[in-house]
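In practice, a research group might receive sequence data for several interacting partners and want a quick structural hypothesis before committing to experiments. The following worked case mirrors that situation: the sequences arrive first, and a predicted assembly follows.
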Amino acid sequence: MTEVALLQPVMRDDLVIPEAVVSARDVSLVFDAGGQRVTALSGVDLTIAAGAFVSLIGPSGCGKTTFLRAIADLERPSSGQLLVNGMTPAEARRRRAYGYVFQAPALYPWRNVARNVMLPLEIMGLPRAERRARAARYLGLVGLGDFARKFPWQLSGGMQQRVSIARALAFEPKLLLMDEPFGALDEITRDGLNLHLHELWRRTGMTVVFVTHSIPEAVFLSTRIVVMSARPGRVVEIIENDLPATRDLDLRETSAFLAVAHRVREALRAGHSYD
Amino acid sequence: MKAAPFLWTALGLVGATLARFAVADAAPGGMFGATLGATLALAAIAVLALFLAMVGFARGEGWFARLATPALFGFLLLWLWEMLVIGFAVPFVLLPPPSAIARAFGAHLALLTQDFAQTYLHAVIAGYALGCGAGFLVALAIDRSPFLKRGFLPMGNMISAMPIVGIAPIMVMWFGFEWPSKAAVVVVMTFFPMLVNTTAGLAEAGAIERDLMQSYAARYGATLLKLRLPAALPHIFTALKLNSTLALIGAVVAEFFGTPILGMGFRISTEAAKMNLDLVWATITVAALAGSLSFGALALLERAVTFWHPSFRGSS
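A structural hypothesis for the assembly, expressed as tokens:
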């Protein structure tokens, strides 16, 4: 845990450093899979500061998705302390602290694109005019303003995932959790969406936690890369990414980029990810 | 559209009509009378022309061409029935010709309308609405209570497999001879298919879609209305369509077990006993029309409501 800005033991909520959007202390999570106990996370310490873009990378089974789901209160840690905005994940979820983008777009096929984006706004009780305005704004932001009246199944996979990002942005959360959002897409679409996401993050200044399998993607997008390893899922190394703040696709051929990518690969190797 | 299929249709219809008159002349000696040659020739021309017309329409585009082929095919079947029954002098009580059924239909229109009102408009519709509605509501209740789920669903599956029409005499004792006892049979018959299908439908929404609702901290009601019920609609329509058939069968058969002097089931059983087979067949025709029209209406509604389902996408 060399480079982690570890929090001091937190006993009360008001002692939490306000800038820490997510703070995990010794978080472990054990699944009970049909009588067999599977340790998905073991002693994870991590602090995510406001405005950071943090990628979680590691082999399958390293618990990166589980950790993201724990932040979102979709899984409960078995031990340790996990705080989101200084609250328990459950409380943060009830206060709608985060937007979540899943591996699949999870759009509802009976709603058109605009009404899919309005779904969280309806649940949160925003007035109708505001819902429409926001749907238009965020669909425009992901470049799908002209597709508002289409149905999800009339769109390509990449466009569907952009709709799901617009839906997550629509209620303007300060924290965006993304679970391999581009994993199922072809590389060209993926490059485009990476650029797009980078732009969005720079413009909105929100905090992003991003789960990925792809080293170039992690290096391109992140301010910080958390390398994890499997069995049990734990953090191997945290790499600060000091590439320039403004990034384009050409960056990926520079030696600075390759150097960071190399460090990520070394950390993965140290975590026996290639064994 | 090309004119050829229309010409073939016209020729086929004329040939079919002439063949029908020819075979009637040949009767009662059957097809082996004097006009046998003429009958067979005309029949051959009719079949060939109608066949060519159907092939032509099947290649065409648009709603007319789509409807024309099955309509002609249906006509051909009825015509064959008519020709064979008359040609081979099949006894009237075994199988009356369609023309006799049509005459009975016209002659007893008032009676058939009363029967239809008694059986369909009262027993079927009331029983269907109550049975489907109750099945749906109980499915929602079961969904909220694991206790009910454990207790109710195995029983529901068991009862779905039972021949429920058998309870008709009991319902007559409970609710009297009038239509409410028939509606009660329909309620019991339609309740369990709706219960079982709605329960299956409510389990249909995917894990990620539910997690999404969870991430919005959506309440049970919002998740139900905005995700689980829409996702359950295809299953619910399966039950609605199945039940529309079951309800009609239930009401008609229930009337075999005691009824006032009205109703489609009553008509079928008494007129069959009196050897008035043409009226029996006319009643069956009413039942068939009512059944297929309700099924068709439900299928159209299903298409409109679940247009997003993979089985309908892009077909409208």
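Before designing any experiment, note the following. Residues 19-97+173-270 of chain A form a domain with the Rossmann fold fold (CATH 3.40.50.300). The helical segments of chain A are 64-71, 89-94, 113-123, 128-141, 157-170, 187-204, 215-221, 255-270.
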